Amino acid sequence: MEVNLPSWLPLSIYAWLVQAVVFHAVGFVFEWCDGTNSMPHLKVRDIDRKPYIQMLPRVLFNQCFILLPSMMLVQAMELCFAGPTHLHPLHFLLSLPAMAVGHDVVQYLTHRYLLHNPDLRLMRLLQHSLHHSTGASRGISACYMSAPDFFLEIVLPYLVPLALVGGGGADVFFHSLVAGSGALGGVYEHSGYDFSALFLPENLTGGKRQLQSWTPKVAALIRDFVDNRAHGEHHSRANVSFSDGFGSPGICDTYFGTRWDLVAARRAATEKEWQAQRRRHMYAK
Q1: Which ranges of the chain have pLDDT less than 50?
Q2: Does any domain span residue 3?
Q3: Global pTM?
């Protein structure tokens, strides 16, 4: 699909507008649901004490003065948002999973090794604790963080993989999809809602009839995809799921054993091995 922008509108600004509109529209919908208690059965986290209006100025600052200039800069450097106006279908399709993997890797590295680094100078500079002052239970909190934190956790995981896959050319549809889906995922991940319960077998049938043989398998895939526990676990435990979450392949957290559901088993296995080695060495002749 080829879409042409007016000559006065740079593609980077257009993509930023898509991101901003989706972010605030979806965020406002979740805020409305919170205020009207419209989906209490799907609200699994509700621990934020900061109101929407208190978070909004910092979120707008980050989006307008950190994200937007960064996007304009990479376009000026012709790293992203520049090139052919229509990507080859294969390039288009392969770029999406490649960006997901790239996002996972970049965010894991910055999140675990910089933002959660116990070095006092880094802690004072990056102020990641500001983001953790929220409980990932209000959608807008996805971008409520210090400016350095926002650059490391939001801007780099978006623009670095985008540049590595060729920058997306000047394909308006591609950039609309990437920017919009990224904003949607971030808001949902921090909303405190978990739609995976909708795809439990008992909720699909209402207990009245048997499902088709393929339906539970499809429902399980969707349930795993929309599961929203990982980032909530990160906010409550801090040292788990650094990039594992909604829309993320979770490769790094799985490989390094920091995924929220692997940490306990890994710790138990380590302790078991330690005790076995200790006994072996103590009683060795």
Answers
A1: none
A2: no
A3: 0.89
Domain tally, the chain: 1
Identify the pLDDT of residue 274. 75
Tell me the DSSP string of the chain.
Answer: ------TTS-HHHHHHHHHHHHHHHHHHHHHHHHHHT--GGGB------S-HHHHHHHHHHHIIIIIHHHHHHHHHTTSSS-S-SS--HHHHHHHHHHHHHHHHHHHHHHIIIIIT---HHHHHHH-THHHHTS-S-SGGGGG-S-HHHHIIIIIHHHHHHHHHTTTTTT-HHHHHHHHHHHHHHHHHHTSSB-GGGGGSHHHHHTTSSPPPTTHHHHHHHHHHHH---HHHHHHHHSSS-SS-STT---HHHHHTT-STTTHHHHHHHHHHHHHHHHHHHHT--
Q: pLDDT value at position 45?
A: 87
pLDDT attached to residue 1: 54
**Domain span at 161:** 11-283
For residue 112, the model assigns a pLDDT of 95
CB atoms within 10 A of CB 255: 10
Residue 2 covered by a domain: no
